[in-house]
Amino acid sequence: MIRRSFIGKVSVAAAVVATGGVVKWRFFAPRKLALAFPLVLSAFCDEATLREVGRKYLAQVPAEGSASILVSRLAAEGAPRAADVIEGAGEAANQAEQDFQAQKILVIDGWVISRTEARQCALLALS
Fold first, then answer.
1. Whether the predicted model's global pTM rises above the 0.70 cut
2. What are the domain boundaries of the chain?
């Protein structure tokens, strides 16, 4: 095999694998949805920790034990309504900041978080 053709074939194979990964991440990863992924809290926690916080919130507030209830309560408080993931995540971060200013905070597993972030973690835990 000629070196040039080998490099070309390897490049095409790498591009196919990378494209498949990007498509899977963009369209099939529920953890990337704005409602289910707290933007600010994710800078401090990995996904497993976020899910654990969500499970503990659901244990504290069993009335919010379904995804539809969580989504409706997040939307009712002005959390992300946008279809765009980046814009929606920014709206949720703004709502979380407003929660802190209004003293709508919870302590779950040692983390001081807003009610919006707790609901987002719960939604992530259910996904």
1. no
2. 1-32, 34-126
